[in-house]
Amino acid sequence: IMRSSAFDQLEAHRTAHEKLLQELQSQATQILARNAGTPAEVFKNLKHWILEHIVTMDRSLAAHIARKHVH
Questions:
Q1: Is 22 helix (H, G, I), strand (E, B) or coil?
Q2: Helix, strand or coil for residue 3?
Q3: Separation CA 22–CA 71 (nearest Å)
Q4: Residue 34 pLDDT level (bands cut at 50, 70, 90)
Q5: Burial class (CB in 10 A: 0-12, 13-18, 19+), 18
Q6: How far apart are CA 25 and CA 49, in angstroms?
Q7: What mean pLDDT is predicted for residues 39-59?
Q8: What's CA 16's distance to the chain center, in Å?
C-alpha cells in the first residue's frame, strides 16, 4: 500500500522497522549471553516502540491512505 500510494515516508517507515528488528536481535543476544537486560525489559521497550510507532508513523500513513482513497 505504501508503495502503490506513493507514500513519501516509505523509506523512513521501512528503516524504523529494520532498526527495531536489529535492536531486538541485539537485546536477545545480550540476554542469552547474560551480559545485560532481561526479557521483561525487552517487552517494555517493544511496547513503547509499538505505541510510539502507531501514534506517529502509522497515523501518518493512515492519513495519507485516506487522502489517496487507497483500498
A1: helix
A2: coil
A3: 31
A4: confident
A5: exposed
A6: 15
A7: 92
A8: 5
Give the chain's mean pLDDT.
Answer: 89
C-alpha cell at 6: 506513493
What's the CA gap between 19 and 28, in Å, rounded? 14
Please report which confidence band the pLDDT of residue 13 belongs to, taking 50, 70 and 90 as the band edges. very high
DSSP element (H, E) containing 17: helix 10-32
Q: What is the pTM of this model?
A: 0.75
Residue 66's identity, in one-letter code, is: A
CA distance 31 to 55: 29
Residues in the chain: 71
Cell output for 37: 537486560
